[in-house]
Write a structure and sequence with these properties.
This protein is an alpha+beta fold. Helix content is 17%, strand content 28%. Strands 11-18-15-16-13-12-19 form a seven-stranded mixed β-barrel. Strands 1-4-9-6-7 form a five-stranded antiparallel sheet, with no helix packed on it. The longest helix is centred in the C-terminal third of the chain and has 23 residues.
């Protein structure tokens, strides 16, 4: 598969290298695990590497037949000159060109393949961490003329047309947080201010962290500086300027600023679909509430994956009438 146009920020990702933070390696991995798992379920390739696409995507020419699915809230995508749906397993022949023009709802989408990408793992993961230059394709975002190869695998034509309607996210701009390790090092008014004011996401935001801008700054009792310590995913650290930074997948493994809060797992899934200039509000929840929320989220995701495996929903409108052989294969004739 050849990259004709790379898109804004396209990287190879999986669930990340979770065992090596103690050695100083960032986790990386997909920003939205639900979208990632749905994409791989549609193409019957659980746990495989995908392309994570931000805002607008690549133009890719396939050098071998395959089945792919692009999972996003909504997007404008074309296979050759034909517009095709999101969240649907689509057969592609050698020579065809996929153009992911733009993501029109949310900010990130996931391109999964039935024949998996042939990517050499680094520390048990294919995920790209661009700051350290490891994983994925040469440790960086896609560039023009990059060439990917797929592993050999017989095509299961029965999955063509698998489709799924993504569940609407409840309160997409409301981000649940629990108290952080240095919660008590902030003025009482700031603890309330964090959840009472609206924040905008700065242009200086990426997979490492989202910088936020609020009308009023948070105030420390003493100083923003602490002895460096491990950073949990979703940590909301507050430097001396009093404006929060949410640390995400590509974050450093240790840091030395006070952390007023931690974004819950479900909150981080929501953040993955917010972009610069979007607005958000925080809400305090307890550890018990965050755990309950997480279990319900994972349960729903597993149910959705099982629904896809049962092939309950099909969309064969994109199978061209002239493809008689393919149509017969899908019907099992």
């Amino acid at each position: 598969m050849k990259c004709i146009k790379p898109g804004l920020f396209t990287t190879v990702q999986d669930l990340g290298r979770t065992k090596y933070e103690k050695d100083g390696f960032s986790v990386a991995g997909v920003m939205n695990q639900y979208f990632y798992n749905i994409a791989n379920a549609l193409v019957d390739n659980e746990g495989a590497s995908v392309l994570e696409i931000t805002m607008n995507g690549p133009v890719l020419q396939f050098n071998a037949s395959n089945i792919f699915a692009f999972v996003a809230l909504d997007a404008e995508i074309f296979l050759d000159d034909q517009q095709i749906p999101v969240n649907t397993a689509i057969y592609v022949e050698k020579g065809q060109v996929l153009n992911i023009k733009s993501i029109t709802a949310g900010v990130r989408g996931y391109l999964a393949f039935h024949k998996p990408l042939n990517i050499l793992p680094v520390l048990e993961s294919a995920s790209t961490h661009t700051r350290s230059g490891i994983g994925g394709y040469k440790g960086r975002t896609l560039k023009r003329n990059d060439v990917f190869y797929f592993k050999d695998k017989p095509i299961n034509y029965d999955i063509i047309g698998n489709t799924f309607n993504l569940n609407n996210v409840h309160e997409p701009n409301t981000i649940p947080i629990i108290e952080g390790l240095q919660f008590e090092q902030f003025e009482p008014e700031s603890k309330q201010l964090l959840v009472s004011q609206t924040y905008s996401i700065s242009d200086m935001s990426d997979r490492m962290g989202y910088r936020l801008n609020g009308e009023n700054s948070l105030v420390h009792i003493d100083s923003a500086d602490i002895i460096s310590e491990p950073i949990a995913p979703g940590s909301v650290q507050v430097p001396n300027n009093g404006q929060p930074i949410i640390l995400l997948n590509d974050r450093q493994t240790i840091g030395g600023y006070t952390k007023i809060a931690t974004v819950s797992f479900v909150g981080r899934e929501k953040l993955a679909q917010l972009k610069a200039q979007d607005h958000l509000q925080f809400k305090w929840i307890t550890v018990e509430e965050a755990t309950k929320e997480y279990k319900a989220y994972i349960k729903q995701m597993r149910q959705d994956i099982e629904t896809i495996k049962m092939k309950k929903y099909k969309d064969l409108s994109i199978v061209r009438p002239k493809s008689k052989k393919l149509a017969k294969l899908i019907k099992g004739e």
